[in-house]
Amino acid sequence: MEEKVSKFRERVSRLKAEIGKVIVGQSEIVEGTLTSILAGGHVLLEGVPGLGKTLLVRTLSEALDLSFNRVQFTPDLMPADILGTNLVVENPDGRREFQFQRGPIFAHIVLADEINRATPKTQSAMLEAMQEKSVTAGGEVRPLVPPFFVLATQNPIDQEGTYPLPEAQLDRFFFKLLVTYPTAAELTAVIDRTTEGRQEKVEKVLEREALLEMQGLVREVPVPSHVKDYAVRLVLATHAGAESAVDVTNQYLRFGSSPRGAQTMILAAKVRALIEGRFNVSFDDVKAVAMAALRHRLILNFEAQAEAITTDHIIAKILEEVPVSKVSAAAAS
Where in the chain is the domain with CATH 1.10.8.80? Predict the structure, then answer.
């Protein structure tokens, strides 16, 4: 097992090194995206234009030996433009028949660029693919070849002509990652790399079979019962009006996290443990991934919106107030 964990760490390090050839900084975003992929989940990247969200996904696809398709979401995009459609084709013998032409969803990695610019009808076409890993078209269910990931981007400031993602679709994203502005040093490095005519070539460092093997290892990592209990108590603390809710929850939240929030925290904590060379999950692993796992699963009430309170603020308060173990909770009371 030690050999498997060491091999896992070495592969992740190689992936990060290849991505680092193109992406400057953004280590938390890179690690969060890799964590989601290794856990078999989808990622929503949110940030203003020009911060490298699309470039990150494209670079990741180059480092992984997987098929990749990019879909630019626009208001006139139709579900068939993503899933595919039946076309009438003529056989060599002159007969005509319907033949299904696959859409860009049939790839291992799908970049849904500016996903909130498409209409709800088109957005809903992604739901089955993201959850069931299959596509229903022409009355037939067509499975997507694993691994399958949707890496979506959206712009939080340009809201004209956009359609906010419904909670049901947001909940299907493993992580929501906020892409921030680079530091002065990072911005200087970006300028040097993009204005001097040199272009780094990203090598493929991880094949499909190796990635599936790593995903299988993640599922084998044991989680102590008290760590599972901590993740459960964090999720229950987001439910306003519940016995386990904290004050900030009752004040600012309409709805809390679904059970997927707990599943996400446990799976992401397993990946984090493996990346750090451990075959067991700790409280710190759960704490480290809680923000990205829960921020898009909480629904604010009017008071929170009026006071410009964010879900990140609420999650930080919950992490402060919910004790890591029931023993410490009993001692505090």
Answer: 221-326
